Amino acid sequence: MEKQYDVVIVGAGPAGAGAARALKDSGLKTLIVEKGKIPRYKMCSGILFPSSVKVIRDNFGEVPDNICCEPKIIKGNRVFLAIGTPFIDIPFAAFDPGEDLDEYGFNTWRADLDSWLCSQSDAEIADETRFNGYSKDKGTYSVRLTHKKEQVIVNAGYLVGADGTISRVRKSAFPDFDEGVGLLPNYEEYYTGKIDLDPGYLYLFMDRKLTGYFATVFHKNEYIVVVTGVRKEENVG
């Protein structure tokens, strides 16, 4: 990592990777900062809806097979409004409309997806690096970082916050903004075993006896993944 860049991007997810990709071949010296060690775990289904597949295809290229898991093809959603009732089949086209979209989505490993997306730019990547804040003087951002336990300052002309819902960059720039943001915590577990659900779908359970928001179930290779969305401070057990 050097001391001077044109652009510093905080966050190595799709937003950060997309910003870096847009700057590719621009001549701007770009740094992506990521607090985890890439590839890093991220709680996410990794399921790419058809519109996401198109965005990636148009801007990054075809999604490579080696970042996908089985089943690679996800046909759509199946929604259970209540336990014991039949599911409702909802194809992607019903809620993800658009022109020139595939009928189905892809099942990827989110950690590998993000790593691949970032690799499609010419940005330098500093993982295991935490954003601590910034100051600004005459158009130059002095970005305070912790890089592998060492405190460093990097200067840049532009600072991009792509660090997720609870953004440290946003909080630094707009300290009061998060007061109006509603949070929806999620809890994720991986299981092995058998379940009477076709692996080719994303399942949603809306029954309030299960969750204060909704729960999802999907397959990734040998795993059955269960995610529960809850209201803040609600007991997920």
UniProtKB/TrEMBL annotation:
GO molecular function: FAD binding
InterPro entries in the record: FAD-bd (IPR002938), FAD/NAD-bd_sf (IPR036188), Geranylgeranyl_reductase (IPR050407)
Pfam family, one: FAD_binding_3
Annotated ranges, domain FAD-binding: 5-173
Signal peptide: none
Protein name: FAD-binding domain-containing protein
Taxonomic source organism: marine sediment metagenome
